[in-house]
Design a protein that fits this description.
By secondary structure, the chain is mostly helical. It has one domain. Helices cover 81% and strands 0% of the residues. The longest helix is centred in the last third of the chain and has 33 residues. The model has no long low-confidence stretch (mean pLDDT 90). Keywords: Membrane, Transmembrane, Transmembrane helix.
Amino acid sequence: MLLLGLFGAIGVYEGGVEMMKQWHLFFTPTLVGTIAGILEAVVITGVFTYLFVELYNRITGSLS
């Protein structure tokens, strides 16, 4: 996310920057947009990791 924010600010790798803008609600190739995109990705990753760990623990706990 940080690299795409930097690349977008200098006009390099525009295709990747455009895809990131489509996938992430708050990402733009500016300083504020890059930080907001990073925070959004952290929250999304945390939620999915928590759900995966819960599912894993329920599956492996029921097998013992």
